[in-house]
Amino acid sequence: MPFMREELQKYFYALTSVARALRSIGVDFELIGSMVLPVGYGMYWDVHDVDLFVIGESPFMNPDKFEELAGRNDWDVGTSAFGNMYMEVLAGDSMIRVDLMENALDVYIPSKLLEDSLAAAVGEDKIKVMRVEGLIVLKAREATDEAEEFLEELNERLGDSSIRLDKKKILSFINEYPSDERKSLRHRIEMAGIYLD
């Protein structure tokens, strides 16, 4: 699908650039967010940034390490409204934002969602990618209008794709969250048309 590659090429470039840089300093990570769909599943999606979940390191607690890495690569660094660090990578004529997420502040991703991942090839790079079932639960947990629209569109697009959801896995991932969140997570997913029975 050349259209998909051309449309998303700058995001693939930013992903592989930051992936190589993080690996060069021994930092592990996993791709989360909407880029999961084109990278892990070959599904075109209109992405706006790249979300990496940093494993075993904390950009929040150790910002100097990540700021130095960005400086060596001539990338800008900032902090989002949610408190996570991001890097801005120049890709062609576009600045692509790569968020470095971690379990801090309002972000919480149970280890089971990260451990049950895919390995995807992006050029010569292998990238750990969250499963679509984990992405669905993460979007439900966001509880925003944008996340709701994402889930509704994903449900529609899945009907026209070869991707088959493992609904037991979605339920298992929901059960990794505190018991007082589980009912609302399932409700948001099912309101988008992804029925789990």
TrEMBL record:
<dbReference type="Pfam" id="PF09970">
    <property type="entry name" value="DUF2204"/>
</dbReference>
<dbReference type="InterPro" id="IPR043519">
    <property type="entry name" value="NT_sf"/>
</dbReference>
<protein>
    <submittedName>
        <fullName>Nucleotidyltransferase</fullName>
    </submittedName>
</protein>
<dbReference type="GO" id="GO:0016740">
    <property type="term" value="F:transferase activity"/>
</dbReference>
<keyword id="KW-0808">Transferase</keyword>
<dbReference type="InterPro" id="IPR018700">
    <property type="entry name" value="DUF2204"/>
</dbReference>
